[in-house]
Amino acid sequence: MKKIHILLLVLIAGAIAVLVTFLKGASTYETVAEAKSTPDKFVHVAVKLDKSLPVEYNAQKDPNYLSFHAIDAEDSTQRMKVVYRKGEIPNLMISEKLVLKGKFEKDHFECRDVQTKCPSKYKDDMKAAEKKVQDATQNMSSENSSANK
User: Given 34, 63, 89, 91, which residue has the most CB atoms within 10 angstroms?
Assistant: First the structure.
């Protein structure tokens, strides 16, 4: 074999290794049931905060301990207790959705990282803008019909 062929084979093997490594790191969201069924496996779980149960956080007792209950984002019958050991989570109470990264251990989900998905501050602006557009088109159509008469 020529040196160029060997070099190309090495480059192709390297590219395949990089792709395999990347695909292992890229994960999809698991459900609460899947997280419970595979304990000690690191997963990403999409959930909502269960606001019917209290959030346990006491800065004087242990500023790094926070626990709450979460409901699966797709199946509201699936619930789990979540323990987060890095302090308080900003925007926890106003978030629409949470992405928890961690593993299920015994009776709770041991969370290492949390990503909060807060409601869009532009939702109300969009609704107002849509209403203005509808009103403007109605006014234009009524003006056009009266001008044609």
Answer: 89
- Between CA 30 and CA 102 the distance in angstroms is 11
Q: Which residues contact 130 (CB under 8 A, 6 or more apart)?
A: none
Q: Break the chain into its structural domains and give their ranges.
A: 28-119
Write out residues in the chain with pLDDT < 50, as ranges.
144
Distances from the Cα of 57 to the Cα of 19, 54, 87, 117, 135, angstroms: 41, 9, 8, 21, 48
State the Cα–Cα distance between residues 58 and 79, nearest whole angstrom: 23
Q: What is the pLDDT of residue 28?
A: 75
The superfamily in CATH containing domain 28-119 is Nucleic acid-binding proteins (2.40.50.140)
pLDDT of residue 19: 85
**Alpha-carbon dihedral 105, 107, 113, 114, rounded to 10 degrees:** 150
